[in-house]
Amino acid sequence: MSLPGLSLPGLGPARATSSTPITGNASASQAPRTETIQPQTEWRFEVAFSQRYNIKLESGSAELFGVELAPKQTYTFSGFKGAVFTWQGCQLEITGTAESEYAGQETEYAVEWLNVHGMLKTLRYQSRGDGPRVLVVGPDHVGKSSLVRSLAAWGVRSGDAPTVLNLDSREGVLAPPASFTVVTCDSSMDAENGYGISPMSGPTVSAVRTPLIYSFPFASPTEKPEAFKGLVTRMALSVTNKLEEDTAIKRSGLIIDTPGSLNDPKTSYELIAHLVSEFSINVVLSIGSERLASDLTRKFAANKSPEETVTVLKMTKPGGAVERDNAFMKQLRTQQTRQYFFGSSKESLNPHSHTFGFNDLDIYRAKSASMGDADNPEAADDDDDYDVPYANKPTSNATFERITPSTTMTGGLVAIKFCPGDSDEQTVRDSAVMGFVYVSDVNETKKIVRFLAPHPQKWKDRALVWGYGWPEAVADLVV
Ligand SMILES: Nc1ncnc2c1ncn2[C@@H]1O[C@H](COP(=O)(O)OP(=O)(O)OP(=O)(O)O)[C@@H](O)[C@H]1O
Question: Where is the Clp1 N-terminal domain (predicted)?
Answer without folding.
Answer: 36-126
